[in-house]
């Protein structure tokens, strides 16, 4: 089945998208990468077809659908900086919501009814309880989270009206790099904890700021659920296979179900590297909940999903990537 399927991966030159493209290619799918390279990197598209384009550009999009029998669209083209979304919500609503509607319009025009959406745990907002399952209320606290909830609602409406089949995958904290070292995390603005910690050891940063050490957690620092990017990629392939086999639309959390505090992550980085991480205790950041941990029971049930990488292995792959000093111009 898979060898004949054409998958359009919008945002496939980005961090998560490029790892999903690799997973698809390794499993006999034809992945066509569509990316405007505003955040992604052409170098991350290894051995796959690439189209330079924006999902707001209907003409370029339509040519891709005209020239290829697309079976499934995977969408990774959202902007994803929380702070920036607060400062410039227009940018986020135009790209994350309006441009997604434009992409869906092209899909409907060419009768493509299968969609995998990159969503986020930011749709839940401040947790009412943990671990967070799919029934947890969705009350985002920033425009980025709002934009993802809006798209999830649009997908539900399109499913009811047009027969669109979709799976929205709500990630927790993506981390790590491909074990072969060929692709990894390289953001225009780095906000993720693990690469920030490691950059202090490559002397790209002077110290890591710990934003608050007085939370209601065992060591006083925030706890998050870190899932390896290759595990995310496998989950996307499994979601794709559900859609292709006629499965129903659904939303699924992707996390490990295990939380690690900021101090624990720093300790793992020190264990992996054998180096001491310089730290500075700073004030809490507004809107940082003490715990964000997924319940992944539904992912196990629906996708047969079991993460392979533990936190040590995740940090180890990230460190191997950092040591290669891969810096890709945006």
Could you characterize what this model shows?
With 330 residues, the chain is an alpha/beta fold. It folds into 2 domains: 202 residues, 3-Layer(aba) Sandwich (Rossmann fold), CATH 3.40.50; 100 residues, UDP-galactose 4-epimerase, domain 1. The protein is 38% helix and 18% strand. It contains 10 helices and 14 strands. A 7-stranded parallel sheet has the order 3-2-1-4-5-6-11, with helices on both faces. Strands 12-9-14 form a 3-stranded mixed sheet. Strands 7-10 form a two-stranded parallel ribbon. Helix 1 links the parallel strand 1 and strand 2. It is globular. The relative contact order is 0.15.
Short summary:
This protein is an alpha/beta fold and 330 residues long. The chain has helices at residues 15-26, 58-67, 82-87, 89-109, 143-162, 193-201, 229-244, 262-273, 297-303, 311-323, and strands at residues 6-10, 30-35, 49-52, 72-75, 114-120, 165-171, 173-175, 208-211, 223-224, 226-228, 250-254, 260-261, 279-282, 291-292. The relative contact order is 0.15.
